[in-house]
Amino acid sequence: MGLFIASMGVFIYFFVIVYIDFVRAKELNQFVDFDVKTISAGDYSVEFDINEKSYEKFKKDYYLDTNPMSEMAQFKQYV
Q: Domains of the chain: which residue ranges?
């Protein structure tokens, strides 16, 4: 009887470990699938630092208040 109980305990332990690993792998695949289906502009954006002198030069020499484009659109063309 003791061998049966020990065998059942080991079987249940292995079953739970395999099931938890299966659920983890399944959730990881679903996350990757969700990430691929929800592509946004943030996936392709780039961030870089500029020094303050460059921005001041843009504001002084290239930025026009009368231009219908926004300041950031004008700065994008400047860069």
A: 1-43, 48-79
Query: CB neighbours of 77 closer than 8 A, spacing ≥ 6?
Result: 69
> What letter represents residue 41's amino acid?
A
For residue 20, the one-letter residue type is I
Task: Name the nearest CA neighbour of 58 among 39, 74, 41, 36.
Answer: 74
Q: In this predicted model, what pLDDT tens digit does every residue of 31-49 receive, in sequence order?
A: 988 888 888 777 777 777 8
Read off the pLDDT of each residue in 58-71 and give the average, rounded to a whole number. Answer: 87
If 0-12 CB within 10 Å is exposed, 13-18 middle and 19+ buried, where does residue 63 land?
middle
